[in-house]
Design a protein that fits this description.
By secondary structure, the protein is α/β, with parallel strands linked by helices. The protein has three domains: 187 residues, FAD/NAD(P)-binding domain (3-Layer(bba) Sandwich); 105 residues, 3-Layer(bba) Sandwich (FAD/NAD(P)-binding domain); 99 residues, 2-Layer Sandwich (Enolase-like, domain 1). It is 30% helix and 24% strand. The chain has 13 helices and 22 strands. The strands form five sheets. Strands 1, 2, 3, 4, 5, 6 and 17 form a seven-stranded mixed sheet that branches. A hairpin with a 5-residue loop joins strand 5 and strand 6. Helix 1 runs parallel beside helix 8 and helix 3 runs antiparallel to helix 4. The radius of gyration is 23 Å and the shape is globular. It starts with a strand and ends with a helix. The structure holds flavin-adenine dinucleotide and 1,4-dihydronicotinamide adenine dinucleotide (NAI). 1,4-dihydronicotinamide adenine dinucleotide binds next to helix 6, strand 12 and strand 18.
Length: 428
């Protein structure tokens, strides 16, 4: 009997296993595919290898090398004496026991479900035709598509639109909503989309896909008229759904949320879980909170601390995120619209990359920073950026927000000259 069973070895599962093992817990971790999960094998790492490759042929050559190197690093970390890696699918027998298809049973006082998510296909005619792929299918292509149609202008859609446009594909995006990237500040999203339009990507906003026939995507435009786009490859980028099938969650008596996520409380413990003498948690994409690799990792860290009876102060309400388009977009904290809706008193301060010396020197003058804070340059609430190295700049503001600092304190912090980070203290 181990102290902890973890199902899934993505960034949620494997990082949690290592943290637990380093703190003396005996861990059994189950993985049905490759260690590293979506993020390392078919998500964050391969896509960012594409972003940092000059051509499509360089990208497809480098991708397996980068993935393999990182995967073997994870395998080494998981060879810790306190960790047993079981390379099989796990499913529940009861609240503290799991079984594998080969008939092995494992029990533990605590169980963490970290099974991740997979592509959610929209229910339209032709969605199963060979030209329709998800992000994993697109990353497996060996030939650059001449015409790529992307359904969905969310994070996956925008990242692939940006990179395949740069590789030379003719990219058309079809999106249901009025603006791209529904999760980020609409001002930033609009400016980024306009810039990507200038780069040659065609956007069809407020358009609902009706059917896909022989590579032609038919959709209703905002006036209700039918239009179509011909493509060699169609990317389905319309969201992801939690992986719960085959886990036999019935044994835990759990009722899934409407979006298929496992319901958890603020400490990621499963709500209303039938567990006789153990505790069950769900971390990462499967709980549907924030589908980000770093969210999964920190949730797992927190759960292990709970199991060990240790207090921590991780701020899950301060979750930075980035979209690796060209240029990047990134944010932390509520958008301007969300602040207005919540009737939180705030003021907004903006600065533009074109006035920043380093941005000019780098020929990266396209970009904007928006900082939201309490009135009178008070406590920082959020930061939204599009422009070169947006993710790194948002990370700096994340530290200030986590520590409860004000805009005045940010302004009074000496910034190296010339750097892009000066744009943060140049806000008006
Ligand atoms: P996963 O990484 O999905 O891992 C779950 C693991 O569980 C899988 O390996 C699976 O095989 C295994 N598993 C499932 N069921 C069982 C079972 N019954 N028994 C045994 N094993 C099982 N996030 C970012 O933060 N930054 C990015 O740049 C980024 N880019 C992305 C790009 C793409 C194309 C995609 C698709 C996602 C991207 N994400 C990114 C999101 C990120 O990949 C996920 O948020 C992250 O992988 C979630 O981690 P997880 O551990 O919850 O699940
Ligand atoms: P998403 O939820 O970000 O975007 C899906 C988009 O598809 C939405 O804009 C939605 O309006 C649109 N859509 C839905 N149905 C449609 C239809 N019928 N016709 C046209 N458009 C339709 O989901 P996405 O992009 O699939 O990403 C899934 C998750 O993966 C995200 O939650 C994100 O957190 C994570 N991810 C994170 C990355 C990062 O951190 N850089 C990179 C890639 C993914």
């Amino acid at each position: 009997m181990s102290n902890l069973i973890i199902i899934g070895a993505g960034p949620g599962g494997y990082k949690t296993a290592i943290h637990a093992a380093q703190n003396g817990l005996q861990v059994s971790i189950f993985e049905q595919q490759h260690v590293g999960g979506t993020c390392l094998n078919v998500g964050c790492i391969p896509t960012k290898t594409y972003v940092h490759s000059a051509t499509f042929s360089e990208a497809i050559e480098r991708q397996p090398q980068v993935v393999e190197q990182l995967r073997s690093g994870v395998e080494t970390l998981l060879s810790h004496p306190n960790i047993t890696l079981v390379r099989e699918r796990a499913f529940f027998v009861d609240g503290h026991t799991v079984e594998t298809p080969s008939g092995q049973r494992y029990s533990a006082d605590n169980i963490i479900i970290a099974t991740g998510s997979s592509t959610k296909y929209i229910p339209v005619e032709g969605v199963n035709s060979p030209c329709v792929v998800d992000s994993t299918g697109l990353l497996a292509l060996k030939e650059l598509p001449r015409r790529l149609c992307i359904i969905g202008a969310g994070v996956i859609g925008m990242e692939f639109a940006s990179v395949f446009n740069r590789f030379g594909s003719e990219v058309t995006v079809v999106e249901f909503l009025k603006e791209c990237l529904p999760a980020i500040d609409s001002d930033i999203a609009k400016r980024l989309r306009k810039l990507m339009e200038k780069q040659g990507i065609r956007f069809n906003m407020q358009c609902g896909v009706k059917r896909i026939v022989d590579g032609t995507v038919y959709f209703a435009n905002k006036k209700g008229q039918e239009e179509s786009v011909e493509a060699d490859v169609v990317l389905m980028a319309t969201g992801r759904k939690p992986n719960t099938e085959g886990l036999n969650l019935e044994a835990l008596g759990i009722t899934l949320e409407r979006n298929g996520a496992i319901p958890v409380d603020d400490n990621f413990e499963i709500i209303n879980c039938k567990s006789s003498n153990g505790r069950c948690f769900a971390i990462g994409d499967v709980n549907g909170r924030q589908m980000l690799a770093h969210a999964a990792e920190f949730q797992g860290h927190h759960v292990v601390n709970r199991i060990l009876g240790r207090e921590d102060h991780i701020r899950f309400d301060v979750m930075p995120a980035a979209i690796f388009t060209n240029p990047e977009a990134a944010s932390v904290g509520p958008s301007e619209d969300q602040l207005k809706e919540a009737a939180i008193p705030f003021e907004c301060h903006k600065a533009f990359y074109r006035a920043n010396g380093k941005a000019l020197a780098m020929s990266e003058t396209e970009g904007m920073v928006k900082l939201c804070c309490e009135p009178g340059e008070g406590r920082l609430l959020s930061c939204h950026i599009y422009g070169a190295h947006a993710a790194d700049l948002v990370q700096e503001v994340t530290a200030y927000i986590t520590l409860g600092a004000s805009l005045q304190q940010l302004r009074e912090t000496v910034h190296i000259h010339p750097t892009l980070s000066e744009v943060l203290i140049e806000v008006n």
